[in-house]
Amino acid sequence: MRAWQVTELGQPRDVLRLVDVADPEPGPGQLAVAVLAAPANFPDVLMCRGEYQVKPELPFTPGVELCGEVIALGEGVTGFAVGDRVLGGAVLPYGGFGERALMSAATTFAAPSALDDAEAASLYIGYQTGWFGLHRRAGLRAGETLLVHAAAGGVGSAAIQLGKAGGARVIGVVGGPAKAEVARKLGADVVVDRHEQDFVEVVKAETGGRGADVVYDPVGGETYQRSTKCVAFEGRILVVGFAGGQIQSAALNHALVKNYSIIGLHWGLYNRYDPAAVAQCHRDITALAERGAVRPLVSERLALHEVADGVQRLADGATVGRVVYVRGAQR
């Protein structure tokens, strides 16, 4: 089969190579799938650089989530059949950026019929992260104000839709007019172009000085620091990631004085500690997708030979929504 492999560490465009490799065989508890679609995620970027907490042995094929068609079952796998259309996480080193991949039966779910392959592939990590962050960790309530950073990106776009589905008033922060238009179409009630406005002042103005009840922050660094200036009394700041490249330090005296919570979210740990909750989350999100309340924003469908360029553009912050490798895509 053809697959992208990382043979040395560095920027995605420099280290990804499209090569011929042997088809992967499923081990116990695993599924072999024909890849139908696989989105680029920031962990793919970080793994190419060697900066992610998961460091696969070289060479490896990235693509941490996908939608696929089951072609073989490993020992002990039940509940799936050859031909099933599924979504979930990849088992590295056989990730989704190739013609075939491996998946763990424990983290694989039926793909919703309401979504096409690219959309279904994008329903896993971003939406699970948003669901657990907003509802389980932050306890978002209807009528509260939710501030979403990087609101036109893959993770942020999911948070907007899930926040709206949960009854929140959503303020989205983006960079540039094109991304602002995307955030509006996703349902954000207020959109802030950070190149033109100070989101701190906008949040204060929109909430009568109270601030945001929940801040969804996949950016980190200065974005986090400034968010502390506009979080509400008893507000919650969700630390989702550090896409801005800087890991911030938290001034705990400030959290004490303003009575807000700083909440970490490592969604992947739920697959280890509470897999039943992950399965229930998938059922809940599927129900939202079936009734049209959420739909992943797929901005680009890439052919296999375009994957390295797409991952690099994600790394450079030049993408909107989800950039997805789709089997058979022609560009």
UniProtKB/TrEMBL annotation:
Instruction: State if Oxidoreductase is listed as a keyword.
Output: yes
Lineage of the source organism?
Bacteria, Bacillati, Actinomycetota, Actinomycetes, Micromonosporales
Which EC class does it fall in? oxidoreductase
**What is this protein identified as?**
NADPH2:quinone reductase
* SUPFAM superfamilies in the record: GroES-like, NAD(P)-binding Rossmann-fold domains
Alphabetic keyword roster:
Oxidoreductase
UniProt keyword annotation of Oxidoreductase present: yes
Q: Tell me its EC number(s), please.
A: 1.6.5.5
Q: Where is the Enoyl reductase (ER) domain?
A: 11-325
Which Pfam family, any one, appears in the UniProt record?
ADH_N
One GO term in the molecular function aspect is:
zinc ion binding
Q: Which PANTHER family match?
A: QUINONE OXIDOREDUCTASE-LIKE PROTEIN 2 (PTHR43677:SF4), SHORT-CHAIN DEHYDROGENASE/REDUCTASE (PTHR43677)
